[in-house]
Design goal:
The complex is a heterodimer of chains A (497) and B (122).
Chain A: H1 6-23, H2 28-56, E1 59-62, E2 73-76, H3 78-101, H4 104-108, H5 111-127, H6 131-150, H7 155-186, H8 191-199, H9 204-222, H10 230-234, H11 240-265, H12 270-294, H13 298-319, H14 322-353, H15 364-367, H16 369-383, H17 389-403, H18 407-433, H19 454-469, H20 471-486, H21 488-496
Antiparallel strand pairs in A: 1-2
Helix pairs in contact in A: 1-2, 1-5, 2-3, 3-5, 3-11, 3-14, 3-19, 5-6, 5-11, 6-7, 6-11, 7-9, 8-21, 9-11, 11-13, 11-14, 12-13, 12-18, 13-14, 13-17, 13-18, 14-16, 14-17, 14-19, 14-20, 16-18, 16-19, 17-18, 17-19, 19-20
Chain B: H1 2-20, H2 25-46, H3 70-105
The chains are: A mainly alpha (497), B mainly alpha (122).
Chain lengths: 497, 122
């Protein structure tokens, strides 16, 4: 237990990197050095944290040494530790990618410090054990992402930012109202204490009412049906590094919060809340994938796929068995890797052809076989082709669904997998297999100048392949995480001891 | 008094939604402001208001009935700070958008319908 501050160090490494980047805001070169050091340090701390949680169980820090239900607790259980690790991996990859992707003007405009403040908010949301504190972390993350999405001030970015900001502000409002009602009913804000009080609370109806506020709030953040409209309107506007970072991490913070709240706190009326979540999950999967089929822009197709994949994660939560939740956690981790990588690849393809529109792209297969291989790994994994990681995650969810005889949702999940493959084959046909639209005399090798952008994509693809061929490693960790989530007593004892 | 406060919160939320559904930039800003105030007021009053009682009392004064719950007040303060930050950001953002749209079209416009390009299928 004496090593517990590790999770504080992980947060501080991000905070201080952000602050130092701000102090050297006139010197981009120093900022780069700080950023590389910061992300590497964060990655190492995240690995250490995961090992610590694996060997010694749930890690708790009481901030300011105030005893548990009164002060704010920072808690790292297996689920949090896995999310922190994946955040660190994505941050590491995106940082290297952004060196050649983000324009100098944006870097001078504070890109690096915002990058760290957003990661700080994301990591804080994963680690906190207090619902009002979670709101504050959400705001840290959101305000940084508001600026990141608008940085550079192109017209499309500003447009996207307006939609993103307004809808997320409303989402935060719902979160705050939910916190108010929960505090009124229970007099507690600590998640562990709430779990105990709500389990023995008489007014189940009112508790369920407050849980609907949280479904609204986290639903907007996670972009579930019918609250997803801000996502496809804004995610394709900023530079690819920023879009990839947000696509990978931000919606998943919403999913994380949903899983945390609806396994630990709101399990008083599973019949109602989890059925509602199941319906939302099915509709989210379908609308997301249909939206993707209609699009003709590489990034917009990917943005709509985020929505349909969120549906799978919520489905895992809604089925509410140990296997289903382990499957959902596995899905979140696999999805973050694959989706970020697809965004990075779309950026690389853009460098080769100077466009994101499918009809203006082409001939990548004949000119850049390596990019094609990276795309195949990620796209097939997203669609769930064996033996790639997406197949395993879908397998666990489908198996869990069949075990409790939810045939309809299983059918939708499989159908959506097929449609995902269809829309990925659309990208394949237009971008990789088709003839190069340009005449031969202008075929200079545009990628050569920016070939370091390939390294992060290779890095993420390697991790995807590792998960694909050794799924039992990650699945074992997901199962431990799911067990901890479903047995609230371990969490409560760790926090309130 | 609770009834009055409930009605005020209802008016705040109702008018904020009404304003946000308009097409004007300015009404969107005011709508967001009112929504922020509505949530803060809701958070402040939902756990019950105590009249004429201090939130912080002396250690020796054990009479807890004459004490207002300090926690919702602390939460409200935090929420106000955050909300003001976001609202200021929204004003700056919409000013930027206004400038960009005006420069592009050479007409002064504050119509949110000019912001539809990111939704279109190319």
């Amino acid at each position: 237990m004496n090593e517990a501050p590790l999770l504080v160090f992980a947060l501080l490494s991000l905070l201080f990197s952000g602050i130092f980047c701000l102090l050297f805001r006139n010197n981009v070169r120093v900022q780069k050095a700080i950023a590389i050091t910061g992300t590497t340090l964060f990655l190492m701390l995240a690995i250490l944290l995961l090992l610590q949680v694996y060997h010694h169980g749930i890690q708790v820090v009481q901030v300011g040494d105030w005893p548990a239900p009164f002060g704010i607790s920072l808690v790292a259980d297996m689920f949090s530790a896995l999310m922190i690790l994946i955040t660190a991996i994505i941050a590491f990859a995106i940082l290297w990618y952004s060196m050649q992707d983000v324009s100098g003007e944006r870097k001078a405009g504070g890109y690096f410090s915002l990058f760290f403040f957003m990661l700080f908010g994301v990591s804080g949301s994963f680690l906190t054990g207090d619902i009002f504190n979670l709101y504050v972390w959400f705001e840290v993350m959101l305000v940084a992402s508001f600026v990141l999405i608008a940085i550079g001030s192109s017209k499309a970015q500003l447009e996207g930012a307006v939609k993103y900001v307004v809808l997320n502000f409303i989402g935060s409002g719902f979160f705050l109202m939910g916190v108010g009602i929960v505090y009124k009913l229970t007099g507690a804000l600590n998640m562990a204490e709430l779990s105990i009080i709500i389990a023995n609370h008489d007014e189940t109806g009112l508790i369920t009412l407050s849980s609907v506020f949280f479904i609204m709030a986290f639903g907007i953040k996670a972009a579930v049906f019918p609250l997803f409209f801000w996502l496809p309107a804004s995610y394709h506007t900023p530079p690819i590094s920023i879009a990839g970072l947000m696509a990978g991490l931000l919606t998943k913070v919403g999913v994380y919060a949903l899983i945390r709240f609806f396994t630990l706190i709101f399990v008083q009326d599973v019949q109602f809340t989890h059925t509602l979540l199941l319906i939302i999950a099915g509709l989210t999967m379908l609308t997301g994938v249909f939206g993707a089929i209609a699009q003709n822009d590489f990034r917009k197709i990917l943005a709509f796929h985020i929505i349909s994949q969120i549906g799978y994660m919520v489905m895992g939560l809604a089925l509410y068995t140990s296997l289903a939740i382990a499957g959902a956690i596995f899905y979140v981790l696999h999805h973050i890797l694959v989706k970020t990588n697809l965004f990075l690849i779309s950026g690389i393809v853009k460098v080769t052809n100077r466009s994101f529109l499918l009809k203006q792209l082409g001939g990548v297969y004949s000119r850049y076989p390596l990019v094609t291989i990276l795309f195949i790994i990620s796209a097939f994994s997203l669609a769930g082709i064996p033996p790639l990681s997406g197949f395993w995650s879908k397998l666990f969810l489908v198996k869990a669904g069949l075990a409790i005889e939810q045939y309809l949702i299983v059918f939708i999940a499989l159908l959506v997998g097929l449609l995902t493959l269809f829309s990925m084959s659309k990208i394949w046909k237009h971008v990789f297999q088709s003839e190069d639209p340009k005449s031969s005399n202008e075929k200079e090798d545009l990628l050569n100048k920016r070939k370091y952008m390939l390294l992060p994509a290779i890095f993420l693809a390697t991790i995807t392949l590792f998960i694909s061929f050794f799924p039992q490693v990650l699945f074992e960790l997901s199962q431990i995480a799911a067990e901890q989530l479903l047995n609230a007593d371990t969490y409560i004892n760790a926090v309130l001891k | 008094m609770n009834l009055v406060i409930s009605i005020i919160i209802g008016i705040l939320f109702g008018s904020s939604i009404f304003l946000m559904l308009h097409r004007s930039f300015f009404k969107l800003i005011v709508g967001i402001f009112l929504f922020g105030y509505g949530t803060i007021f809701f958070l402040f009053s939902v756990s019950g208001l105590t009249k004429n009682a201090p939130p912080i009392i002396d250690k020796d004064a054990a009479n807890l009935t004459q004490m207002a719950d300090p926690l919702p007040q602390a939460l409200t303060l935090t929420a106000i700070v955050i909300a003001i930050g976001v609202q200021v950001f929204v004003i700056i953002l919409l000013k930027k958008v206004y400038e960009t749209v005006t420069n592009e079209k050479h007409v002064r416009t504050e119509d949110l319908d000019d912001l539809k390009t990111t939704d279109k299928i190319d």
